[in-house]
From TrEMBL:
This is Leucine-rich repeat-containing N-terminal plant-type domain-containing protein. Its main location: membrane. It comes from Amborella trichopoda. Gene3D superfamilies: Ribonuclease Inhibitor. SUPFAM superfamilies: L domain-like (SSF52058). Residues 1-20 form the signal peptide. It is found in: Membrane. Keywords: Leucine-rich repeat, Membrane, Repeat, Signal. InterPro entries: Leu-rich_rpt, Leu-rich_rpt_typical-subtyp, LRR_dom_sf, RLP29. It comes from the Eukaryota.
Length: 384
């Protein structure tokens, strides 16, 4: 009985000490400084930040008997002398103001999510000193300025989403040092220049809607054995698209639409499911090698300058039901449409309209918009 009583007392003291553990003072000061930097008028009464009052309540107090605090996750484990803030994920309440550099004092932080608000100004370079940060989500704000050159110091980072802001300048040249990064989204900013060397563990690369220029070089992508999604549409990329890109071993989706690409080479791939190269300056004969992509279900080459016949291999892809979306409209294709195009079964969306094709009835939606005149095709040949 005596032994049992001792054990009960020990357990009581252990629970009491765990519950009473206080948040590290520097973490509390960082949270207070973060809230103080935000425009008070942008903090709704129902929001997470409105619940932050640490004058009498510890942010990591557990259980929270008297005061609810949202947006903060803590580590109350007994291995440390004080509780630490490990995640800061705010609601989309329209918070406005700068991001204080004091957040770098939250040295145990693994997740920082301030997305879908109205934060403005630059990313504090000091955030790159957070040693355990794995997720940084600042998308859909009004952040601006160049990306901090120190950003690649976040070697533990796995997901970085800075999309839909106002960042400008070049992507940091040392980006490839972010060896843990697998998801990178810099879409819809004003980033310029060429793509630098990329982290080898990337699975998703999205930099659409920027001002990127230059060609895509094999050296930049050669180590990306895990890349599944490549989204670089709506930029100013030019030059030749090499066949090596299609041969990346894990690549499933390519979207390079709305660029200035002028030449195309297609190598055999066993993984590609969707390819969108529309609204470029691609010219020449349609590559028949697209028919060698066994999983290809969506292909868009519309609004380019392809000429010559419509390959029968494309008709076979349609007739066999392998392709569900095929857009070849607004080029300079000529001759007859292969009969296989009219033998498809199932659902097919797409168009071969606005070319110079014969035997494509305008009553068929796949043949719309109407074909160009033969004179348009002759003028195109003279321009070559």
């Amino acid at each position: 009985m005596h032994t049992r009583a001792v054990k009960l007392v020990f357990l009581y003291l252990l629970v009491a000490s765990t519950a009473a553990k206080k948040t590290l003072d520097s973490d509390i000061r960082a949270l207070v400084a973060f809230k103080a930097a935000i425009d008070s008028a942008s903090i709704p009464s129902w929001s997470c930040l409105a619940s932050w009052d640490f004058s009498s309540v510890d942010p990591c107090d557990t259980p929270r008997r008297t005061h609810f605090i949202c947006g903060i996750t803590c580590d109350n484990s007994t291995t440390s002398s004080a509780a630490r803030v490990t995640a800061l994920a705010l609601d989309s309440a329209g918070y406005a103001g700068p991001i204080t550099p004091r957040l770098a004092d939250l040295t145990a932080l693994t997740l920082l999510d301030l997305s879908s608000n109205s934060f403005r100004g630059p990313i504090p370079p000091s955030l790159a000193s957070l040693p355990s940060l794995t997720t940084l989500a600042l998308s859909t704000n009004s952040l601006s300025g160049p990306l901090p050159p120190s950003l690649p110091n976040l070697t533990s980072l796995q997901s970085l989403d800075l999309s839909q802001n106002q960042f400008r300048g070049r992507i940091p040249i040392a980006l490839h040092l972010m060896s843990s990064l697998n998801h990178l989204d810099l879409s819809f900013n004003a980033l310029s220049g060429a793509l630098p060397d990329l982290p080898s563990n990337l699975v998703v690369l999205a930099v659409k809607g920027n001002l990127l220029t230059g060609a895509l070089f094999r050296r930049v992508f050669s180590s990306l054995e895990h890349l599944a999604v490549l989204e670089l549409s709506d930029n100013q990329l030019n030059g030749k698209l090499g066949g090596w890109l299609f041969a990346l071993p894990a690549l499933q989706q390519i979207n390079l639409s709305n660029n200035k690409l002028s030449a195309l080479e297609v190598w055999k791939s066993s993984t590609l499911v969707a390819v969108d190269l529309s609204y470029n300056r691609l010219q020449g004969l349609l590559p028949t090698n697209f028919s060698l992509l066994p999983l290809l279900a969506a292909l868009s080459l519309r609004h380019n300058q392809f000429w010559g016949p419509l390959p029968r291999e494309y008709g076979q892809m349609v007739a066999e039901g392998r392709v569900r979306r095929m857009y070849l409209d607004s080029n300079f294709l000529q001759g007859n449409v292969p009969p296989a195009f009219f033998k498809f079964s199932g659902t097919l969306t797409g168009s071969v309209g606005d070319n110079c094709l014969r035997n494509c009835p305008p009553t068929l939606s796949f043949c719309m918009p109407p074909q160009k005149s033969a004179a348009s095709y002759r003028q195109r040949l003279l321009a070559l």
